[in-house]
Amino acid sequence: MLRIFGTINSRTARTIWMAEELGVHGVELHSLGDGRYRDDAVALIGRGYLAVSDGPFVFTDGEVAEVRWVDRAELDALMATEQFVPDNLALLLPLVLPLLVRA
User: Fold this and answer.
1) In which residue ranges of the chain is pLDDT below 50?
2) Which residue segments constitute the domains of the chain, with CATH numbers given?
3) Dihedral in degrees, nearest 10, Cα atoms 85, 55, 52, 76
4) How many helices (H) and strands (E) does the chain have?
5) Which among 10, 22, 42, 69 has most CB atoms closer than 10 A?
6) Is the pTM of this model over 0.90?
């Protein structure tokens, strides 16, 4: 899906995304960094953000297929058995792993 926000600034676009995809409102987003990714299927420039919220979370638009709340050990186990989007692994995982607590 291509979303064009026209002249909406980046902060507003992120706020809209959080509301549409997660049902989260009024949460401050902290930049984790950005990077470029390219493989045979996709080329993108991505940005990662950290948001902390106790919810409630609402996944109403159908784009979120599954959600699991995991600690670092559970994430390691999932990564050994499940498939993840390659650009997320390449760009976001290195930014997020230092933030996770190993159980």
Assistant:
1) 1-5
2) 10-99 (3.90.79.10)
3) -40
4) 4, 2
5) 22
6) no
